[in-house]
Design a protein that fits this description.
Blueprint (H helix, E strand, L loop, with lengths): L6 H21 L4 H30 L5 H23 L5 H32 L2 H23 L2
Length: about 150
């Protein structure tokens, strides 16, 4: 990723990976492949959410104009966390597993679409270009750090 990237470019890259992993998860048969894709998606979602909350949501929460949209986005992260947890507890060979995986995928896709179409526009009016660039480098650094922490957990 170029050093001049803004926070939105950095986030969209992770969003694309999340969409891809959701598709792969729904196509994977049972067994090791399904477990591996689930693990990758769980790590990606958690690392992305942690860094995004710190370096996009937190600054936007500080502005009255961004308060409602930040709260809403945070609540969607919580819903996704719950879906991941439920999927992790489900019998991966059972029918409920696929239903839970579909629900997770729908939640992720809904959140990403809403974030890209609404939240980015609201936050883009709040942040300066310099802030967008600075937040991108902070986000990327924390995102990579969190991925390592989560992969080793």
């Amino acid at each position: 990723m170029p050093a001049t990237a803004n926070i939105y470019d950095a986030l969209r890259e992770s969003h694309q990976l999340q969409r891809s992993l959701c598709r792969k998860l729904l196509r994977a048969g049972s067994g090791d492949r399904r477990r591996e894709i689930y693990r990758q998606l769980r790590t990606e979602l958690a690392a992305h959410a942690a860094a995004e909350e710190r370096f996009l949501y937190a600054p936007i929460l500080m502005d009255d104009m961004g308060l409602d949209s930040s709260r809403h986005a945070l609540s969607e992260h919580h819903e996704i966390d719950e879906c991941i947890e439920e999927l992790g507890k489900a019998d991966e060979g059972g029918r409920s597993w696929l239903a839970r995986a579909k629900k997770l995928s729908e939640e992720v896709h809904h959140h990403l679409k809403e974030e890209e179409k609404k939240f980015f526009q609201v936050s883009g009016k709040i942040l300066t270009d310099t802030q967008k660039t600075r937040l991108a480098s902070r986000y990327l650094k924390d995102y990579e750090r969190m991925k390592k922490v989560l992969e080793n957990a």
